[in-house]
Amino acid sequence: MSIIHVVFACVHNAGRSQMAAAFFNRAADPRLARATSAGTQPADRVHPEVLEVMAEVGVDLAAARPVLLTPDLVADAACVVTMGCGEHCPVVPGVEMLDWPFPDPKGQGLDAVRAIRDAVSGSVSRFVAERGWGPGV
Known about the structure:
Elements: E1 4-10, H1 16-27, E2 33-39, H2 48-56, H3 71-74, E3 79-82, E4 96-99, H4 110-131
Parallel strand pairs: 1-2, 1-3, 3-4
């Protein structure tokens, strides 16, 4: 059985998609599924406010770097989850597409970014559970 690849995509790959991929990789059994993240217009770095609120829940994104969403990156994906990139979001024929329209955390206060983080975490947890990709499956 091959490992399922999920791609989380947003515009800058510096907030929502980084959060989602990190939460996914923490929640999913790595023998079943793994996630990557990318952006249609990647930023230079992960937003500082995102680094801070993710560290609060034990997720270190300090080494994470935004990457460009390319056809090669999604070529083996079973699912692409877009996160508020609107008309910039890719359409990948033959790949399941989901859209989770979370607000962009860039430049928002820590309380707002925490709320986005918690909403992303909840969606990822439900997604992993619904698909049966959690540990002990």
